[in-house]
Design goal:
Layout lengths: L1 H19 L12 E8 L2 E8 L5 H16 L7 H6 L10 H16 L9 H4 L15 H8 L8 E3 L2 E3 L12 H15 L5 E5 L2 E5 L8 E6 L9 E7 L3 E6 L4 E4 L2 E4 L14 E8 L2 H14 L1 H9 L5 E6 L4 E3 L7 E3 L2
Antiparallel strand pairs: 1-2, 2-5, 3-4, 5-6, 6-9, 7-8, 8-15, 9-12, 10-11, 12-13, 13-14
């Protein structure tokens, strides 16, 4: 009896263990989707991420405010404000400001001055959003302002930044991209693995969607002629999509579109065949500067320039409603029907 009982007990135990089997890993719960909207850098800032940290986006918004205070040319005491009011004296700046300035000079060099942050004296004479919208600046004053545009005179060393008297800078064409990247890094450090940021046309995706698929980012139609106002959609993950065009800030006068992307040699808005350019790049810092630079170059030169850069792609929309894109987007961009 003892032997039969032991055999029966062993059989029951074996069946129980077989039924349980090896421990199965439990799926990790997907973090909740959270979003916040703010207004910084003179634009609407939208953050949508997947996180269980209730305060993470609030802290990210505080970081946006810190960067706004640091880099806005209109905030008294900011690094840019101090540089523009130094009257020929060298100004100590943060490491972050220096990094942006050095990147800006790289693009000025690579584009032979098509991109130039010292265009600010010309920018100051235009009003594309306020009470002066629709009025052209005085031609002589604009010509004099254009004479002050020269990126080669920006002197940066360990002691700070030095500009000749009368020269000023505007980081509007590059700082937003830098900040977008920094906020994304802040969110990743807080545990975010999926989400996207939209800083007024500067879109940056973090990872993939929670289901593992890529993000479909609609490309703005600068002419507004298509359904839902997009020319198509690009599939991206961990990439930035930044658009510059004639639709954002500008006005029409006597059949001419005057917009905020200025020719650095004249101070007048760039007049070429383009209505908009979207750049797709690993980071928003490069994409932001490139969108302005490539727009000013036009389709032919801009396409050749982008094709020479590894990991960078572009979508071009002309004023005649033609849409073209660089070779690396062959299987990643779907034009609208």
């Amino acid at each position: 009896m003892k032997r039969h009982f032991s055999l029966l007990l062993s059989t029951v135990l074996c069946l129980s263990l077989a039924a349980c089997g090896p421990a199965q890993p439990q799926p990790t719960p997907t973090p909740q989707q959270k979003s916040q909207v703010g207004f910084y850098f003179d634009t609407v800032v939208t953050m949508q991420v997947y996180t269980d940290d209730e305060d993470l986006l609030t802290r990210a918004q505080a970081e946006c405010q810190r960067y706004d205070d640091l880099l806005s040319k209109t905030h008294e005491g900011s690094d840019v404000w101090n540089i523009n009011h130094a009257q020929g004296k060298r100004v100590a700046v943060s490491d972050e400001t220096r990094e942006i300035l050095e990147k800006a000079l790289e693009y000025s060099r690579a584009s032979d001055g098509v991109f130039d942050i010292t265009v600010e004296p010309c920018v100051a004479l235009w009003d594309f959003t306020g009470k002066g919208m629709g009025l052209l600046p005085d031609e002589e004053a604009l010509a004099q302002a254009a004479d002050k545009v020269d990126w080669t005179l920006v002197d940066i060393n360990d002691e700070g930044v030095l500009l000749p008297p009368g020269m000023t800078i505007d980081l509007g064409a590059i700082a937003k991209g830098y900040i977008t990247d920094q906020i994304a890094d802040f969110l990743k450090a807080g545990g975010v693995e999926s989400g996207y940021l939209n800083f007024g046309g500067n879109v940056l995706t973090i990872g993939h969607k929670p289901d593992g698929s890529e993000w479909n980012i609609g490309i703005q139609d600068p002419l507004g002629k298509r359904d839902q106002n997009i020319v198509g959609a690009a599939r991206v993950s961990d990439q930035a999509v930044v658009t510059s065009g004639i639709y954002e800030r500008g006005f029409d006068l006597d059949g001419v579109r005057y917009h905020h992307i200025l020719d650095t040699s004249t101070g007048w808005p760039v007049q070429n065949e383009l209505a908009g350019v979207s750049i797709i790049a690993p980071d928003a810092f490069d994409a932001d500067a490139l969108s302005t630079t490539v727009f000013a170059m036009g389709v032919e030169k801009g396409t050749a320039f982008i094709e020479s850069l590894e990991g960078i792609e572009a979508i071009f929309v002309t004023r005649e409603d033609s849409v073209t894109w660089t070779s690396g987007l062959k299987d990643r961009f779907t034009p609208a029907q």
